[in-house]
């Protein structure tokens, strides 16, 4: 598409609107990839394996293609899911359009199916679930529309989850309402094909990311620290001499205080790569001291909890 029309922009669900300046700095070449991910809080606010998206952002950087962070702040949908739109503060509400179109009958029906997979017996829970989806849809549509209205010569490729795109009920129709632009919906072949679900289905071969390099630990955050909760027997960290209760202070010289900080230091590592970890460990008499370790990362294997690294 870029070859056909270089006057292109990319809108992404993966970054939130308050981090537009960090996206701009990376695309313009003013910051490194690590600085970009840290500054935009990627692993706190999105968290999926960044290797899935790195080629998109690297291509945009090479070609100087504008990238718009379309998503609303992470706290908004979760707040609405719990307490409805009425639970938003005035500051949070400012990220959303004044008018939010209700979900159509078919969209509500599809959302009902998703809701019932992890539903709640609380009153109004489903209505709040629908409102949270609309916060995403309307917020991203408004952000894309603002850019397109300010740059009428550009086309935009919007990359978002299929739930926001299928049948046009989410972002597409809400974007059209604001801009009157034409659009085409492209979905992956992994979707169950139904009449009118999309304009195109992309029939690509299934691909998998290569194995990532992992420490083989389960982590927890407590008191502003990133602590090792458990280690996989025979895992990389265990072999290097790390222990349960060690507080990770640095990875390759970068400060660590959260699980996201550690993930930032590991996301592009492969099995066999070596990283330097500094940890704080309590001594025999209770005094804590820092200790340094070199860890040769291993391929994933086994499970050690929800915060495996």
What does this structure look like?
The chain is an alpha/beta fold and 309 residues long. It has a domain at 217-296: Roll (Pdz3 Domain), CATH 2.30.42.10. The chain has helices spanning 20-27, 33-39, 42-45, 54-63, 75-83, 90-93, 105-117, 125-150, 171-179, 236-240, 259-266, and strands spanning 8-16, 67-71, 155-159, 186-188, 200-202, 217-222, 225-231, 247-251, 254-255, 274-282, 288-296. Strands 6, 7, 8, 9, 10 and 11 form a 6-stranded antiparallel sheet that branches. A 3-stranded parallel sheet has the order 2-1-3. α1 (20-27) packs antiparallel against α2, α5 (75-83) runs antiparallel to α8 and α8 (125-150) crosses α9 (171-179). The relative contact order is 0.11.
Q: If you consult CATH, what is the topology of the domain at 217-296?
A: Pdz3 Domain
Radius of gyration: 22 Å
Strand content: 15-25%
Helix count, DSSP H or I runs of 4 or more residues: 11
- CATH top level assignment of the domain at 217-296: Mainly Beta
The counted number of beta strands is: 11
Considering the chains and any ligands shown, give keywords for the structure.
6-stranded antiparallel β-sheet; globular; alpha/beta; 309 residues; 33% helix; Pdz3 Domain
